[in-house]
Oxidoreductase (Paenibacillus beijingensis), 139 residues
Amino acid sequence: MRTNVATTLMRVVLGILFLAHGISKLDMGLGNVAGWFESIQLPGFLAYIVGIIELVGGIMLILGLFTRYVSVLFIVIMLGAIFSVKLPAGLLGNGQAAGYELDLAFMMIALYLVLADKTGWSLDSVLFNKGSKTNETAL
């Protein structure tokens, strides 16, 4: 029971955080985000992909739908952010740019969700574990 609560909370909070990042990119305008991506030598089209994954993936994590797949995508995004932008600033940042400590925390939560036996109270449990013992704690 406690593990389900913790897993559910981690999944939902991570989903909210990524959803907020996706909304932020939409608010800025994906074209502007694409321009920033290009300014750091990344293909601009990646901004659209990342924005959509953050937005839709955040919603999916909140609902607990395809949790493992979405979490893998979030790990890839975090690795991309660390190695393309944040690594030079160091773990805690350098006063001019943010460090990658938060990205590591997000990545570790996502990794837990990939490896966990259950995804907590989720649509995954309801839709894909019908009749199994792991469905005991489904919604």
